[in-house]
């Protein structure tokens, strides 16, 4: 990565919301004929113990966060929460990182920033024909990649014990790194 010309944009999400989305997504991908889903509790335990088909979540996030500090010209790290809270500011930061900053006209006069935000919004993307009716080669529907696009929906799913456990893990894994999720 250090010698490559490529740039990496790393979008991270609060681990609690990450888990709930992963659980929902995984259950959507299970073959219908199986007729069962993975329980929230069972998969939560696996997520916390890093038993995942996606690999070690905690190490992955921390690795890219550290890379963004060491090589800010190569790795752009942002959180979904930052993006939802201040989309305009984050889009401008991303454009700067990619070497394509918005001109004053694009930003204020032409409405280019606002148009990009509209086109890339969860609402717009989830309603595109390809995402409503398209399928992957595996037969899974593209709509499986879209759920709510909200921040903080984990409160509807996680128990107080789960919340306490994941907070302990977050503190343990990210302690001293400066990463706040």
UniProtKB/TrEMBL annotation:
Enzyme class at the top of the EC tree: transferase
Which residue range or ranges hold the Sulfotransferase domain?
2-178
> Out of the domains of life, which is the source?
Eukaryota
Which protein family is it in? Belongs to the sulfotransferase 1 family.
Q: Which InterPro entries match?
A: P-loop_NTPase, Sulfotransferase_dom
Protein's recorded name: Sulfotransferase
GO molecular-function annotation terms?
sulfotransferase activity
Q: Which PANTHER family match?
A: SULFOTRANSFERASE SULT
- Keywords for this protein: Transferase
EC numbers listed for it are 2.8.2.-
């Amino acid at each position: 990565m250090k010698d490559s010309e490529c740039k990496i944009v790393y979008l991270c999400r609060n681990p609690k919301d990450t888990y709930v989305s992963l659980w929902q997504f995984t259950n959507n991908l299970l073959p219908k004929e199986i007729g069962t889903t993975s329980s929230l509790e069972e998969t939560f335990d696996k997520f916390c113990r890093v038993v995942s088909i996606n690999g070690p979540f905690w190490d992955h996030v921390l690795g890219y966060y550290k890379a963004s500090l060491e090589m800010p010209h190569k790795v752009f790290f942002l959180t979904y929460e930052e993006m939802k809270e201040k989309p305009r500011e984050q889009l401008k930061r991303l454009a700067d990182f990619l070497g394509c900053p918005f001109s004053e006209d694009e930003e204020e006069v032409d409405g280019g920033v606002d148009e990009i935000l509209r086109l890339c919004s969860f609402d717009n993307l989830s309603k595109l024909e390809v995402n409503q009716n398209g399928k992957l080669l595996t037969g899974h529907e593209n709509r499986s990649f879209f759920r709510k696009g909200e921040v903080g929906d984990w409160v509807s799913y996680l128990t107080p014990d789960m919340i306490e456990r994941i907070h302990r893990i977050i503190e343990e894994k990210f302690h001293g790194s400066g990463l706040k999720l």
